[in-house]
Structures are given as structure tokens and as C-alpha cells.
Amino acid sequence: MLLGGALAALFVLLGAAVAGHPLPIDLAVAGALQGWWRGTTGVVTTVISDTFGIVLPTVFAVALPVAAVLCWHRGLRRELNVLLRALPVLLLCRLTSVVGKPLFERSRPREYAQFSYPSGHVVAAASMGLAAVLLCVWLAPRLTRWAIVTFASITVLVAVSRLVLGVHWLTDTVGAVLGVLGVGLAGAAVVRLLPRPVLAATLPA
């Protein structure tokens, strides 16, 4: 809970710091990648960005309640319990972008719809990753490390794609991860998905 609160506070502080003007590192990265979004590079990067930042997180978000219904139908109480606890955590994480964009009203590096901070694509990818890791912790502990590496890589890939497309500043992507981890860890503590179990079977029904 404390770690989540600290990360959420950093998310807010960073947003307040960059709302008025980009940091030097933002300008440096944007300058280095200026114009990369044009042509074939832009087309390929857009596909990557939308696949891992929109399509996959959407499929994951739909799959969780479907899985919960299947667990309820089959009488898998423990699995249903975990899924029902993970769902609100995922929802809270996704709200980071919905709340943050109008709160900070940050302009994009180039003309583009909506505000910039935090990156919605990165929020979606990071939210999916955090929820997936929590599910692995309780339901498939042996896959936890694999999930961390896989979804961290996806989040970084999405962040880089948004920078290459020139629609986000570097701090938009950093803020997205801070916000998701902050809200997600605090939310997971509230619904008792954290700290991780000594034995997963100890989860209350």
C-alpha cells in the first residue's frame, strides 16, 4: 500500500511538472525521433502500437469476466475469487489514463487527438501486465517470472512505438507506468491480492 501510494504520488508530481512544458529529455527524444512516423516505419509502428496497446489489452479485459463466468459455472470457487479481485484492480489501472489526461491537459509533441499525459496505450499495456502477474502469483506461481518479463517487454515496446510515432513525450510513457503501478499496487492491497500468498491455497473464499 505504501509503495503504491508513493508511486501514485510520483505520477501526480511528474504530471504537474510537465503539464506546462516538456522537460529537456522530452525534447531530446522527440527531436531524435522527429519524422520517423512518416512512411513505412510509421505504418509498421502503428500496427505494433495498436496491436499491443489496444487490441491485446481489450481482449484481455474481455477475457477476465468471461473466465469468471466459466469458473462460476464450473464451481471453481478459488479461481473465481481471484478473478473477481483482479477485475477491479484492472479497472482502476485503466482509469489512470481517463482521469490523468483531462487533469493535466498536456499537449502532444505533434497535432493529435486528446491530451498527452499519461499515454493511454502504455496505461493499457501496463494494466494488462500487472493484472496478469497478479493472476499468475495466485493461480500459476511458476509462470510469474515469465509473465513479468513478457508483459514488461510488451509495455516497453508500446512505449517506444508511441515515441516513434511522435504522439507522446518520453515522460508520458514513464508517467503511465508510474500511475498504473501506483494505483494497481494500492488497489491490489485493498482487495487482498497483495502481499503475495505464502501458499496460494490460503486465499479466503
From TrEMBL:
The keyword Repeat does not apply. Residues 81-192 form the Phosphatidic acid phosphatase type 2/haloperoxidase domain. Keywords: Membrane, Transmembrane, Transmembrane helix. InterPro entries: PAP2/HPO, PAP2/HPO_sf. Gene3D superfamilies: Phosphatidic acid phosphatase type 2/haloperoxidase. SUPFAM superfamilies: Acid phosphatase/Vanadium-dependent haloperoxidase. It comes from the Bacteria. The keyword Transmembrane applies. It comes from Amycolatopsis taiwanensis. The chain crosses the membrane at residues 43-70, 82-100, 120-140, 147-170, 176-194. SMART domains: acidPPc. This is Phosphatidic acid phosphatase type 2/haloperoxidase domain-containing protein.
